[in-house]
Here is the input.
Amino acid sequence: MTSAASPAYRRLSVEERRVQLLAAALTLFAHRAPDEVSLDDVAEAAGVSRPLVYRYFPGGKQQLYEAALRSSADELELCFAEPQNGPPTERLSRVLDRYLAFVDEHDAGFSALLQGGSVAETSRTTAIVDEVRRAAAEQILVHLGVDRPGPRLRMMVRTWIAAVEAASLIWLDEGKQPAAGELRDWLVDHLVALLAATAASDEETASVVSLLLAQETAEGPVGALARRVTPVVSRAAHLI
Here is the structure.
C-alpha cells in the first residue's frame, strides 16, 4: 500500500520571495510600532530563516521597514483616487471611507508612522510620508476643480489634511469612537466649514465654493450642514 504523494515543493522566484517577506513585514508593522518588530519576527511570520531575510534585505530591518512603508504609502495614495463623477462632497465621503478603513486596518503602525519618534524614522521615511500628504492635497484640489491654487486655498487644503491626520490618531486613541461613518461625516463638514470661512476673505476660494455648490444637492452633506448650522447661527445672532 503506497502513501499519498506529498505536495511537490516549489522554489519561489526572487520576486515572489521578496513579496512574501514584504507581506509578512507589512502585517507586523501594521499592528506594532517599528521598534517592536525584529527580523526574527519577520522570519518567523514568513516561515523562513533570519539569514534569508538578510539575503533579500541586506540593509536589515531599516531597509525592510522603508520598503514596507513605501508599499503602504502606495496603497494609501490609492485611497485618494476617485472618479470625478457626482457632487464633490460625495466623492470626498468615498475617499474618507477608504482612508479610515486603511487607518483601522493598520492601527498601531499608522500611529507610529505619523507620530514619529521611532528609531526607524529617517529622512527617507519622512519624505515618503510627506509624499502621501502632498498627493492627498493634490487630489482634494482636483475635486475642487483647481489646477494652480493660490496660497490661501493651498494652505487651507493642507490644513485640512493635517486635521484629518490628527483626527485619525485621536480616533485610534479613543478606541475608534465615534463610529467611522460619523467621523467621516464630521470631516466632510470640517472641509466645507473651512472652505466657507476662507471664502469670506479670499476671492479664489469664493469662486471655488460657488462652483462646488452648483454641483451639490439639497439632500447632500452641504445642504444638511446648512440646515443644522442655520438655526444655531440665528440663535447666536440674537445674543450679540
Observations:
- The chain has one domain: 69-239.
- The chain has a mean pLDDT of 84.
- Residues 40 and 50 are 6 Å apart (CA to CA).
